Amino acid sequence: MSDTAPQNLPDVAQTGSAVASEPAQPSAEPPAGAVAAAEAGGVAATVWVNGKKINALWSINENRNSWVSVAGVGWVKLANNSDSAIVALTMLGADAKLTQGTVNYRQESDAMIHEMYVW
Amino acid sequence: MPQEDALRLQSLIQAANAGWSAGITSVSELPPEQQAARLGYRGGGPDPETLEQRSQVSAARAAAAGITAIGAPAAYDWRNSGGRNFITPVKDQGGCGSCVAFGTTAAVEAKLRIQRGNPSLAVDLSEASLFFCIGPGSGASCAGGWYMTPAMDGYKNTGVPDEACFPYTDHQQSCGQCTDWQSRAVKIGGWHTIGAIADMKAWISANGPLATCFTVYDDFFSYKSGTYRHVTGGVAGGHCVSVVGYSDAGGFWICKNSWGTGWGEGGFFCIAYGQCGIDSTMWAVESIVETGWLNNVQVVGLWTIDQDRNAWAYLAGIGWRKVSPDNDNIFFDLLRLLAAAKEGKRPVNVYQVGGVIKQIYVL
After folding, report:
1. For chain B, which end, N or C, has fewer CB atoms within 10 Å of the first or last residue's CB respectively?
2. Residues B185 and B232 in one domain
3. Is B270 a known active-site residue?
């Protein structure tokens, strides 16, 4: 049985590229203002979406099922490969929603957010 | 060095138009064996070059005209960076060949002040801990000196506590650092060597002082001021210092020595590009990984990834710090408080161990 999803799933904007490493650590510096997002079309295995705001959150009583609504993009699911990872991503999504801070996130071919900066 | 010898040396310097002044200094009057004891760099071994190779590379570069900064300011001096002095006070290694510990520690101390953006930051790290606790594993001794590679590795892998944990004295001794040295240790995030002159200047102007080593000749002990060039005297040994600046107009590096303030220009000296192997290779401290309290700082960014308990907070003026991943509830409690501080724009006091946040107050 597939997980439930929030309503009105959008298309996903895609931009940039990313390199994942193990163990990972952040590499970006704080943006001077909003980070310019160089939007580009097409489908890539890994994409960075930059300079976004979170305008809604959604979760449900199902294991590791939490989503954020990205302004101009729509609902995007958070990576569900680990309990601690999805909780941390949810906490950052909540922070971004509360503060309306700038969000940069990495999306993989599974359409889920696997890495996130919140400024 | 008797007064007549100083006068003779000064006349030789003038005859050679070498551009520096000699005289009686805190080390010029010492017998040769005690002068040599104030050095301590072996060269070769685990390091990239011998002293002879360093001198050859530097001299060849100087002969090939055009050692000027490319992509870097024409001059820089961390003693006056926008009117602020980030360099810690000059120390004195005394009669022990521990210059490697002093040269690397000077670079690390400056890097910590620069990383914090605080030229007044109270930082004084223990050269004794580096030399007498970490050093013996790779052959360091007062009589034999040491190498740069294990010293930098020591800062990266083990860490060095504050001076009060193990005060320096200039004689061979066993490790005597405080019992809680690990919780007081400063580590570096990494280091690397730089071989190109332009890259050295770019690093210094953008990141902080470098450490370097060179061949000391007898006339160097009498240096008082100006831009040093070897004029006379034989090889006394190898020596390490930190490079705190440079000037393309003057054609020199500005270095901090470890012979006290009674030598040179208050303990500093200028040395011409290409002299004595000074700029063959230099060693760069990439970042500081700290232990201790950071008080009244702002959380301005958060980061996480699809890995178990891996989240970081960006502290204003400090940089990224990892959230302790010790267990789930520790990780989430700390992350939630960091997020709350960020959301409320409230300052925090955080206790970090090796750059990992272990405790937090939200104020």
Report:
1. C
2. yes
3. no
Whether residue A57 lies within 8 A of chain B, CB to CB, comes out as no
A21 shares contact with chain B (CB less than 8 Å): no
| Judgement on whether residues B265 and B302 belong to the same structural domain of the protein | no
Q: One-letter amino acid identity for B343?
A: E
Q: How many angstroms away from the CA of B343 is the closest CA of chain A? A: 6
- Domain total of chain B: 2
Residue at A99 is within a domain: yes
What per-residue confidence (pLDDT) applies to B62?
Answer: 78
Residue of A nearest to B310 (CA): A85
State if pTM tops 0.90: no
Domain boundary among B255, B271, B288: B288
Any domain includes A75: yes
Distance from CA of B333 to the nearest CA of A (A): 11
Same domain, B157 and B267: yes
d(CA A37, CA A19): 18
How many Cβ contacts (< 8 angstroms) between chains A and B?
Answer: 85
Is residue B125 located within the same domain as residue B201? Answer: yes
Chain B contact for A109 (CB, 8 A cutoff) = no
The residues pairing with B332 across neighbouring beta strands, listed in sequence order, are: none
Please indicate if any CB of chain B lies within 8 Å of the CB of A89.
yes
Per-residue pLDDT of chain B (363 residues; tens, 9 = 90+): 556 677 889 899 999 989 999 999 999 999 999 999 999 999 999 999 999 999 999 988 877 655 555 678 999 999 999 999 999 999 999 999 999 999 999 999 999 999 888 898 899 999 999 999 999 999 999 999 999 999 999 999 999 999 999 999 999 999 999 999 998 899 998 999 999 999 999 999 999 999 999 999 999 999 999 999 999 999 999 999 999 999 999 999 999 999 999 999 999 999 999 999 999 999 999 989 878 888 899 999 999 999 999 999 999 878 889 999 999 999 999 999 999 999 999 999 999 887 899 999 998
CB spacing of A89 vs B320 below 8 angstroms:
no
Please say if B230 is a catalytic residue: no
Looking at the structure, tell me whether residues B102 and B238 fall in a common domain.
yes
Check B335 against A91: CB less than 8 A apart. yes
Name the residue among B306, B312, B332 with its Cβ closest to that of A26: B312
Among candidates B301, B306, B314 on the partner chain, residue whose Cβ is nearest the Cβ of A115: B306
Q: Is B240 a residue of the active site?
A: no
CATH code of the domain in which B164 resides? 3.90.70.10
Instruction: Please tell me whether residues B280 and B305 are part of one structural domain.
Output: no
Residues B223 and B311 in one domain: no
Determine, for residues B310 and A88 on separate chains, whether the beta-carbon distance falls below 8 Å: yes
CA quadruple B83, B192, B101, B273: dihedral sign? negative
